[in-house]
Amino acid sequence: MSRGREEVVIVGGGLAGASAASTLADAGRPVLVIERDAEARHKVCGEFLSIEAQTYLSHLGIDLDAVGASRISRLRLVRKLKLIEVELPFVARGLSRRVLDEALLREAEARGARILRGRAVRSISTDHSGVAIDMGPGDSIAAGSVLLASGKHDVRGVKRTSSGAMNDLIGFKLHYRMARNERQDLDGAVEVILFRGGYAGLQMVEQDIANLCLVVSRQRFEQVGKNWDDLLSSITDECPHLGERLQCARALFERPLSIFQIPYGFLHGPDRDEPQGLFRLGDQVGVIPSFTGEGMSIALHSGCLAASIYLDHGQAASIFHHRVRSDIGRSIRLASTLNSAVRHAAGQQAIFRLSRLWPGAMRHVAALTRVQEASMHNVLFAS
Ligand SMILES: Cc1cc2nc3c(=O)[nH]c(=O)nc-3n(C[C@H](O)[C@H](O)[C@H](O)COP(=O)(O)OP(=O)(O)OC[C@H]3O[C@@H](n4cnc5c(N)ncnc54)[C@H](O)[C@@H]3O)c2cc1C
């Protein structure tokens, strides 16, 4: 069945897709979002919301207090038996992706976007007349423009050209119900735990739930026989602080969620032959290493920016790709260089020493890896 022709279709109803949908619907434009999952689900993510992400969320009508997000004002850096604590330059928030993604998609719907849930796009093809979206045998939609916001999932016909340099990392995420004492200690802080071959983030999200999210080299995972329990116990042996935190905590998933070959450092390079009318958002346009806690704000920025450029210039995707690249390129390059250091013992030692000698160092680095205020101002002011 052909579902006819749409002006704009957004593929993927995560942060990037939902923010673009809200912005377009707000401007009175008809927009259809196709989201593979029938309902929001947990995703591999540290669930740390930077101040930039919070600014976009508030602009998009999300009240983080109403949805129960935690508050985080301190960062604890932990390595082996050592711990350093610094104040964050802003109050961050913690919120599970399941709650956040659902709230954003509902808000887009309330503003007038149509959401087709539980349908996956199988392939996309483009020609001079527009874009054809295939959702399985006999099920297709024609569109003037497509905003591709499928996150880490590539879609046939429009796959990302490069998978980035750092693709040997594996990401894991697990929620825990914390014991009372540990919860009190963790409240208000994000703990970044450095270990051989990777790093973890532990923080409260909503209610008494904590999120443990870690990335680890494939080599270290293979050394423990690719077994999650053995990986976790080898990390807690190396870093007893994490062991204490989790000792009386109850895991809320049967097994952790995982993601393989994270293309940290990927940045979409506009291609002269790329068709107009195909906009790449969120992880489809750039992937920043997760220790920065900035991936979600990049997704929200790119979603709002793509929508506002579409409203001003129609199908001119190349204008958007040049703008977004200049807004996020520097952060991704710097964060990728630091990511290599964070994974290795010598780099971890250097980061620890520097943070002791100069407590402001982490704040300084954080400022350099963020979406800059001027770029955000242009988008927020435009819409
Ligand atoms: C280990 C790790 C930790 C992270 N921690 C943080 C953090 O603490 N803070 C932070 O800000 N960022 C973090 N990030 C980054 C952040 O999670 C991503 O950058 C962000 O989710 C990207 O948003 P998106 O909208 O592009 O993709 P997603 O949120 O992944 O959304 C994509 C959507 O598209 C849908 N979809 C996919 N394929 C199809 C299809 N074919 N048809 C229809 N729908 C489809 C999916 O179901 C999904 O809902 C982390 C990333 C990793 C890997």
From TrEMBL:
Pfam families: FAD_binding_3. Residues 7-132 form the FAD-binding domain. GO terms for molecular function: FAD binding. InterPro entries: FAD-bd (IPR002938), FAD/NAD-bd_sf (IPR036188), Geranylgeranyl_reductase (IPR050407). This is Flavin-dependent dehydrogenase. The lineage of its organism: Bacteria, Pseudomonadati, Pseudomonadota, Alphaproteobacteria, Hyphomicrobiales. It comes from the Bacteria.
